[in-house]
Task: structure prediction
Amino acid sequence: MLKTFSIGGIHPEENKLSAQSAIQELPIPKIATIPIAQHIGAPAKAIVKKGDEVKVGQVIAQSSGFVSANIHSSVSGTVFKVDDVMDATGFRRTSIIIKVDGDEWLEHIDRSEDLVTEITQTKEEIIKRVGDAGIVGLGGATFPAHVKLSVPPGKTAEVLVINAVECEPYLTSDHRVMLEKADEIMVGIEILMKALEVKKAIIGIENNKPDAIAHMTQVATKYSGIEVCPLKTQYPQGGEKQLISATMKREVPSGALPIEVGAVVQNVGTAFAVYEAIQKNKPLFERVATITGKSLKNPSNWKFRVGTPVSDIIEAAGGLPEDTAKIVGGGPMMGKALVSVDVPLTKGSSGLLLLAEEETARKATKACIRCGKCVSVCPMGLEPYLLMVLADKKEYERLENDAVMDCIECGSCSFTCPATRPLLDYIRLGKGKVGQIMRARK
Amino acid sequence: MNIIVITILALCAIGVAAAIILYFVAQKFKVYEDPRIDEVEEALPAANCGGCGYPGCRGFAEALVKADDISNFNCPVGGAAVMSHVGGILGHDVKAADPTVAVIRCNGTCDNRPKTNIYDGATSCTIAASLYSGDTGCQHGCLGLGECVDACNFDAMYMDKETGLPVIIEDKCVSCGACVKACPNSIIELRKKGPKSRRIFVSCVNKDKGGVAKKACSVACIGCGKCVKECPFDAITLENNLAYIDYNKCKLCRKCVIVCPTNAIHELNFPPRKEKPATKPTAATVKPVAKPVAKPEADTAVKSEDKENGTSDNK
Result:
């Protein structure tokens, strides 16, 4: 039997429409809008000003703390202005707007496709380079990668778990990267293993990608210590704690980080970015995203430069279908709807999903019928129906006692609720408030 | 017969003994409570709204009795009458606080502030605000989901279906501040009621630069500073592209209302002007309703195909 996590989980329709479409390169935009906050943690500090000439790969915003990341220019040209621009949530945030002129890269970036397998750098150098290259978790949460690689004193990492699950329906970007860049990923994993001083890496892949499992297993034989672990297709298999439970049979305690059980989880896309940063001197300014949707002419996977407007990738995939009612940034389960097509794609953009009215319309909220479905699907073993009521009634103390902070916001509860209650919306609200209270207490 | 007498006597003896014990126990563990607390609580309006900052009227009464100086305490519901009564009970001087009332500092009606997307998530302003900037181009203004109305315990608010904005019924508003706390965008403010309920305020909280604000909403404060220059009493300050009128300094001269180029400054409950200024019609006189404005330019309206919904949704 295939491995999976211990409790809960759902199986939404997979809809991997773009799985057979090879990664294409998206044309460089005319104007790139690069937000200075593309990661969890403190926003970077812009170090360029209006009129400055920038090259591809140049640092344009400096990391402003340990949990922060550098931002590099994805294009070459002139800085048009540094201004507050609408981001995907509609709020105005500081961004660097660059007028593109040609495509001139910094000289030390190796643009060849040759595979470099020899790892010459030491552990410290690797971690520093990963930080300098502005690499963040490319699964969507955008947590700065160098932070996870810096194992806190007193703890030891035993296993590196590579998240190649791609459990979100529709998305196929990781799938395609694995098929096309398997060797690079393996070297990236070896680099990560060296940085963490671990001897073992497990790549978790859901078995709805048999071609990727076969290809990765075959390539992995060339590298020591890396094994591929096929997993059951079950959402949210790609949740950090779920993945550890499935691959290592260890449970991360409530409120603790994976390092507590000796695990470090990195996304497969991150491994590829690490390869490029260490072996090719290439910082993170481009990545692969899926654009998909049932009415879309050409669901496909694109390598894009950070800062490209969403409208460009839609145009490249055949234009906006007539019946589009919602554009979701990310997958259908955890993605967030965009307020406009003029917002830029960022480091965290793993996909764009165009949904028609009938797919996305919310049904009216009905009374809870106490069926307990949300409880049985919750992969963290929480009681979503109760948490929702507590959040609505502002019972923050009880919310905290009922472990609301363990919620991974996967949305399985809302997905499964027969009374179509907006469970996650309220739980997320309560989680935010409880988080505030807990921080204030410290 | 004898048995009955003995029984009665025995029971009486037990009763008396228990009564004596209870009396001494009660004396021993007596908790002294100032009788004035009850008296003061009686005088308070029993709304238990928390507008004074204390947990209910009882809590407020305890605080009042404990305090040496109650001139800084105020019951917004009871106002000066109740406070002077309380002052009488406690033998303290009471400074009559000016009555306040809640005002909505947003005039982003459907006409003034065109919608750029549709929200279909949970009906809660706080949730909407945590997800995104709102269904219009303005990221500061009213989200229109009525959390303030739900918070009001005095039926003093309702959502105006036409404008999509909450409306405060002045006579019912007790200025408890529940709506102020409920609003995630902090658009509601408790302001001095003013003589004959006349007051002037900037009906906008948009801190964006003028051009951005104006593009999102035709009656936004664009931070031009005309009112600041016009005000003879230095009552208006401009911070982050937003004017704010200090109600303690404002003498209700209404000069700022006339000069405001976007009609963002509202005057309430004033009689109609005798001689109308040549340039502009007067602002709304009863409640902040939509003023006649030109339809937004074509370029400010988002193309229909660009209208995306703004919620994170689980399909």
